[in-house]
Amino acid sequence: MASYARRTNLIEGVGNEVLLGLGAFTGALVAALYFVNSRGTTAGTIHPDSERHIASTREQLQNESEGEQSGQQTRASRRTHNRNDGQLTCPICLGSAVLAVETNCGHVFCGHCFVTYWQHQTWLGAVRCPSCRTQVSLLLLNFTAEEHAGNSEERTEVINKINQYNRRFSGEPRTFQEYLQDLPTLLRHAFHEFFSVGGLMWMFRFRIGILVLAAFLYLISPLDILPEAVFGIIGFLDDIFIILLLAIYISIIYRQVVATRGGAE
């Protein structure tokens, strides 16, 4: 019987369960990376329930623009120089997003426009996204390379306000459904920062590496909660659950990194 079992293995000395687990892990990883990277930033429209607040925000922005001195560079002229290749449009000012920020639900706005929208409603609590009405618990910088390298007064003000917002509201309790809704945006930002030179600190990258390695070892281990050899395709449910928990935990610690980064500046 033992010799027969060895002959049925696809690779001698390696159980078929290990190969199935390795294939499942690789497939899930590729699918997750494709899903995360295909979910780009969203140029949303204004939700009907937000129209009244958006109208008052636009009026406030117009008053600020008219109140600027003639010798100063206006936001309209800055928009010409910091255009995001026409790909990102702010649904508040209806222009190209300048010093853009992205909400945890994946919608993009001008940094100054969103800060004005927040200030115009209330300073006491987190606001709801003007596009989808999801509660905004985290704001992520979505600057162009030129804006990252700049050192303007508006850039400094936007970063300070965004950091303030994240410090106040990123740690609020969240439901499991909200964690799932935030996954595409947070994982995409974490993925890009993970592989960028000046992105995440090495300790965070090390933690992510350990988590991925632990998940990989579990998936190729024959000691599953639901063994594939016994339950067949149903045996992959625990593997999918482990991958999902891994993704949620990565998003949680990335959220903590963003909030801590804001407190350090």
From TrEMBL:
What species was this sequence derived from?
Elysia crispata (lettuce slug)
Please tell me one Gene Ontology term that the record gives under cellular component.
endomembrane system
**For the region Disordered, what residue ranges are annotated?**
57-82
- What domain of life does the UniProt record list for this protein's source? Eukaryota
Instruction: Identify the main location.
Output: membrane
Report the locations given in the UniProt record.
Endomembrane system
Protein name (record): E3 ubiquitin-protein ligase RNF170
Q: Membrane topology for this entry?
A: Multi-pass membrane protein
Query: What GO terms are given for molecular function?
Result: ubiquitin protein ligase activity; zinc ion binding
| Membrane-spanning intervals of the chain | 18-36, 204-223, 229-252
One of the Pfam families matching this protein, by short name: zf-C3HC4
Where is this chain compositionally biased, Low complexity type? 59-73
Record keywords: Ligase included?
no
**Residue limits of the RING-type domain?**
90-133
Q: Which UniProt keywords apply?
A: Membrane, Metal-binding, Transmembrane, Transmembrane helix, Zinc, Zinc-finger
Task: Supply the CDD domains for this chain.
Answer: RING-HC_RNF170
